[in-house]
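Changelog-adjacent note: as of this version, every example in the card shows the full chain rather than a window. The one below runs 314 residues end to end.
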Amino acid sequence: MLYHDFLDNTQKPITKAAHYFPIYERHLKKFRNQSIIFWEIGVFEGGSLQMWQRFLGPYAKIIGIDINPICKKHEDWQISVRIGDQADTKFLQEVIDEFGYPDVVIDDGSHHMEQTYASFDFLYDKLRNNGVYLVEDMGTSYMPSFGGGLGKDETFIERSKKMIDLLNARQNELSQEFAKSTFSVCFYESVVVFEKLRWFNPITNIRTPMRFKEIDISRYNKIIFYGCGMHLKNIFNYMYINIMPDEIWDINANEIMTNNNIPDNLKHVPLCLPDFTITDKEKVAIIITMAEGNAKEEVKRLLKDKGFTSVYYV
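Full-length structure tokens:
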């Protein structure tokens, strides 16, 4: 455990709050023995850079950022230290140009509000997919000497609170840019952790594969999936389904699709059924993959009117 490494350390001094170590373990263990670029803003006595070296293993490139030139002495074969202001975006870009985009950034730097969010504003968008941005010692958000204060809008804690709304932008009218690239924002005492994950196909209203197992497909000669484009795409993108359809009917595109050919762009048309001629309708199962609501009930009614007796909703 990382905490045991901290307690047993006999090398350069490490200054960390004890409750930080479970946070590190939770968010950073996936990077162990991986080829990553790891930044720590704030070098101080160099002990934490050595700790990360032991924790991450030999494949990580560890970059220390500090404003104090004396910190260059903490470099070794795996650790590089660059001297500059964490709020200087030109300097930060030079570090990126030299080493590449970071997978992890730990901000243990000045802890002043302006410098903390200047670094975040510049670096977060440049963090690699699946990366982690961890800001610690944010108890300073409540300290006037660091630009903080309880409930003060300009503090990093208050700004991070507002990011909860941005994370849920698909359910409100805010910009979705942050939500499209962020998996989570986690709050701990004096620590905020951002987990980066670009959502290419956001999941909406998918249902468990267990629902499909309730359908006895041996009774039917044909299986048809019927629904709207996004729900159909989610079924195939995110679920291990045990029923493969013979045909796919898309309510939005108003067309029959075969061979699981779900187009990326679907034209929305009024609710209606595609034209079709099917005999022996008792041997056809139609599985509706739509959101809850009046449209679902209307589809069920239309299908029953057409003579289909086996209509399922998953």
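Structural remarks: Confidence is low (pLDDT under 50) at residues 254-272.
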